[in-house]
Amino acid sequence: MPRSSHFALVILPIMLLLIAMTSIQSGASLAKGLFPLIGATGTTALRLGLGALILCILMRPWQARLNLRSCRSLLAYGLALGSMNLLFYLSLQTIPLGIAVALEFTGPLGLALLSSRRLLDFAWIALAVFGLWLLLPSAQADVQLDPTGMALALAAGLCWALYIIFGQKAGAEHGRQTVALGTIVAAFLVFPIGVWHAGSSMFSLDLLPIALCVAVLSSALPYSLEMIALTRLPARTFSILMSMEPAIAALSGLLFLSERLSLSQWLAISAIILASAGAAATIRPKGKVL
Questions:
Q1: Which of 22-26, 220-224, 235-239 has the highest mean pLDDT?
Q2: Could you point out which of 54, 126, 160, 186 has its C-alpha 20 to 30 Å from the C-alpha of 118?
Q3: Where are the domains of the chain?
């Protein structure tokens, strides 16, 4: 394979995915600063609303050829995207960023493990469960985590799994315009909820610069890059690389939010990362021999 082709087919998508993960976690750190002003719902609504506008300008989604069958996967993708963002931001109100992403990552992990039933796969499940167990509130825990926040992050993980499933299908049908169309659907889902909770505070011009940065870092840029990577990388490679995201989130929380995690929490994040990467690296589709 020529060097230029190797770069375009392998290295470039990997670089884009790494940039996307760093961008989205930096944006989440910035977004958390808006919570005292407009809450998690208002922040999510602004992020998706502005992100949708930016993506419409860049990708012109009105040029997409839509039909009833393709709209079903697109609608499911957008609803999963909006629910994932809303539940994740709600979880950030009470638990650290790195912990929230680690819990959310159980969704893609579970999706990967559903495709195989080997003994080794149960080892990855056990490792992920061990990581979750370390995060459970207990009398011996160094820092108590809010159970509601943990439940919201796990629910966001379920939506993340659905986002991957429907995103691959919608991406194959609509290409690069998928992310813009999906974000529009997500914005229509979340924006009324944000207005209901935050009211007129959401439309303060003082919030616009920060909200625009959040929209670019957390929606417009990473979702565009992820969609490119998702359609060019093998599912296994994509999943292995994505397993780095909890660590990137924890570092972003430490650098930008001064969220210091205990040793057991770092160990829990590491266990979930290792389980996710291991599952992605060793998974075999059903029906294939070892």
A1: 22-26
A2: 160
A3: 3-282
Rounded Cα distance, 244 and 240, in Å? 8
More confident residue, 6 or 262: 262
The rounded distance, in Å, linking the Cα atoms of 127 and 131 is: 6
pLDDT at 156: 96
> Around Cβ 126, how many Cβ atoms within 10 Å?
12
- The larger pLDDT score, comparing residue 264 to residue 237, is at 264
Q: Cβ contacts of residue 155 below 8 Å, gap of 6+?
A: 87
- Please say whether the beta carbons of 246 and 272 come within 8 A: yes
Residue 94 in this model has a pLDDT that exceeds 70: yes
275, 134 Cβ separation under 8 angstroms: no
In whole angstroms, what is the distance from residue 238 CA to residue 226 CA? 9
Provide the whole-model pTM. 0.85
